[in-house]
Design brief:
There is one protein chain. It contains two helices and seven strands. A six-stranded antiparallel β-barrel has the order 2-3-4-7-6-5. By secondary structure, it is mostly beta strands. The protein is elongated and about 75 Å long.
Length: about 160
């Protein structure tokens, strides 16, 4: 840290540590595995012909992402006819340290459809914690079609050789 409380990077520039990181793409399995390690993410959908984003809790089961909904919430608009494949959404989750800027980010694009089996929906609702005290009445299943992600990792550097003398 410098005298002002800022982070000094390895190149001497305040807050700039890009020289010590690299970005590595994740494969589908690793990306979904990382999403399963956190409980929060953001679902991106269309509401009144405009993009909308909601922070939600989730779980990953069988490669699908499950989120809770309540009847009068914005995500309830994603519940379409049962004969449709679902509504296209994006889902993003990450874990990035704000100081080191190391971590990962994953974006899943796929179809969201309601969980229609009552017992399965009740099981999901019991496992997901709501953000507020409103009762959650159902669950959405996001079936990933496209999964992309990256990990920001510390660049490995070799130590300087000792001078013999």
């Amino acid at each position: 840290m410098d005298e002002d409380g800022g982070i000094r990077g390895t190149d001497g520039q305040d807050g700039d540590v890009t020289a010590t990181r690299r970005m590595r793409e994740l494969d589908r399995a690793e990306a979904l595995g990382l999403v399963a390690t956190v409980s929060l993410g953001r679902v991106v959908f269309t509401q009144h012909a405009l993009p909308a984003v909601r922070l939600v809790d989730h779980l990953v089961e069988g490669g699908d992402i499950i989120v809770r909904i309540h009847d009068d919430g914005a995500l309830a608009s994603l519940v379409g006819p049962t004969d449709a494949p679902g509504v296209v959404v994006a889902y993003e989750a990450d874990a990035i340290d704000p100081v080191t800027r190391l971590g990962w980010s994953v974006v899943v694009t796929g179809y969201a459809c309601p969980v229609t089996d009552a017992a399965e929906a009740a099981r999901f609702v019991s496992r997901l914690r709501p953000w507020v005290g409103r009762p959650m009445t159902g669950a959405l299943r996001i079936r990933p079609d496209l999964v992309t992600g990256f990990r920001l990792e510390a660049e490995r550097t070799l130590p300087e050789p000792a001078c013999l003398g």
